Amino acid sequence: MLADETSLQPGLYRLPEAPIGPKVLIPGFRSATSVRGAFGWFTAGWIERLAPGLAEYLGRSDAAPICFTVAPVFFPQERHAVEQGSAMTAEEAAQRVADIFVEGRVDATALGCHALDCLAWMVAVDRLRLRIAVPNPDSNYHPKIWLFDDGSDQVLVRGSANATGRGLSGGVEHMDVDVSWNEPGRSRVATGIGILDDWEQGISLGIEQTVDLTDALRNDIIRTAPAAAPTPDHYLQAVGESSAQSWAIEARDPLERLRDRFAHPPTTQDRPRLAIPDWLEWQKGDYSHQAEAVAAWESEPDPESGTVSMATGAGKTLTALICATRVQDRLGDTPLLIVVSVPSAPLITQWVGEVESFGINAVAPTQASDKNAAISRLLKLLSGGGTHVAVVTNNLLCDSTFQNTVANHVHNASRPLATMLIGDEAHTLGAASFIANKPEFFERRLALSATPERQYDPDGTEEIFEFFGPTVYEFGLEKAIGFCLIPYDYYVHATTLDGDELGEFKKLTDRIRRLAFRLKDDDDDRDLTSLLIRRRRIVETAESKIPLLSSVLSHRGPRSLKQALVYASAKNPEQFDNIAQTLTDFDVRWAPVTQETTANTKHLDKTLATFAAGGFQVLLAKKVLDEGVDIPSIREAFLVASSTVEREWVQRRGRVLRRHPGKPWAVLHDFVALPPANLLRQAGRADDDLKKIVQSELSRAYSFATHARNATGTDGVLSHLDRIRSTYWSTNGGAAVLESAGDFLIAPATPEGDQW
Known about the structure:
With about 750 residues, the protein is α/β, with parallel strands linked by helices. About 45% of the residues lie in helices and about 15% in strands. It is built from 31 helices and 23 strands. The strands form four sheets. The chain has an eight-stranded mixed sheet, sandwiched between helices. Strands 19-20-18-21-22-17-23 form a seven-stranded mixed sheet, sandwiched between helices. A hairpin with a 4-residue loop joins β6 (about 145-150) and β7 (about 155-160). α5 runs antiparallel to α7 (about 115-125), α13 packs across α14 and α22 runs antiparallel to α23 (about 525-540). The longest helix has 20 residues, at about 500-520. It starts with 10 loop residues before the first strand and ends in an 11-residue tail after the last strand.
């Protein structure tokens, strides 16, 4: 551990008297599991000087690749080495190891004697990752920072010494060392991490862009520095040329000099600006509805505010960024801050990617090691001009500290600053935390949602519309299917409660009936409400759905499952575990997608990539996939989780209907649990809520069925639902199904085997 290295002490080091290498950098390599840096001058000399610690670092399996962000000027030998490393095959890299290392082991002697060969090898085998920072024409990239991290503690080294042999051992330099395990250095270490994060992504007024080494070599971005230092003759020649040029300029008429100066104003390319991508066709053709939405949001009587309601897949995100770009263009040179608020971490990643396609690197404070520092850096950059985008969670948007920081900066800025808020999945902002602390300082407001109304929460819905503005444009599911969403087949599989759940359901029903009998019509009784909620939850998380799922999978053919999604309830962990066991029993290759999965972005990306490649047949998910996470390859969904909230089942349906190559249609299996029909008839008129439970489940199913390909016909889903409904509200002695406890019904014409 870094804290155990006795020579690793904070303070200001004077070089060459205080040898920074043996005292700090070598111990840092020896104990760290991650090393990062940013340097203006970069040579292989640091490998030779730090070989004892570097050898130990490279020899450990838990050590991450070393990541440096360097200037685009290399000395000839280093340029040749990194070019070799980038082009080297695995076999050539292995041979290089055999040539310079004893028995293939990394050792300090080999590193010291063959620094350039080791540099090439480290690049070839991805032990050293170089990012190239291209400064603006009027700027210079010249930092000197090292960061060592062991997973718990960090050491930050910064000063005047470059990552060169001379800089670390021969020059008159100074280096400042801070450690995270004492209070004075902790904040400086966090600030240094934020700076490295920014420079690695090209976030700086002085950096035009930052690219990977391979891209820099391919696009001929790297320049070669002279092998030798300039001589006095070179200096005198440069002075003479500069003086002659200056004399020629000064000799001109002063008015002419001013005219020439202002005819070519300073470049603004370092000020980030959104730009609609060339590939985006939004004003005509299939996606012209995006232009209609943009025009509606911009129009009177309250321009640049309102709610846009678009079905999944219709392009809400792109539409919002088009709106933002046009706001920016109308503002001219006025700096613009755009804040995008989302309900979940996966959506942050998606938005950052979409913003990047419009030419800007968005900041995600929630994912930064120090979110307050990230916000401060963003606001500082905003003061320099341009358009800046922050993607935040709803929780951070509602945080009073965040709001006060942004509002104070906007109101106290030395020049006018414009603001815009985009609320994605805006229905989630109807919660009490947002209503109690709305960020009123945002001038322009755009709400996005497929279902902006909050079912069962008219007050929350009203608050959303009051803040963002009413719905100005709608593009519903009926327009989207067959256009930006694919058609689907829909199968309803039903079961009745059984066993202990039925016993508990009946017990609650009796208590509800007795309590309701004593209450007057206008009484509001919390005990009754609690009982009703408990009874509804039994239906939503019914255990009888598990054997029904098993029967459907057996009929469907589990071996042929691929690109499938299973939704489990978020209200009952046991249902998730039981479904997992069922999938395992059928030898189905599955992976979970829960809040724990999405909290680890790398793990989530790996899971989704494996799923897309066919490594997993099924993703087993909870509510976390409801809000905007796109997995277009999903072609079949098993909705074991019931939801009476329209927004949730619309979102779940949308997850499956995304267009994808080789996916002409999708299949939805809906699992419905109901009380036995004979129990409903016994209750008679005394229990309206019991009837509402059945009505709610069937209403959801009918809504799904309306747009399905297999809606009509003898075996169509509407005919199947009519049969179920006639059991509960029989008008002509309809066929009795789901009559008793434990009955189940698999939808007719449920497909078998591979359908695509």
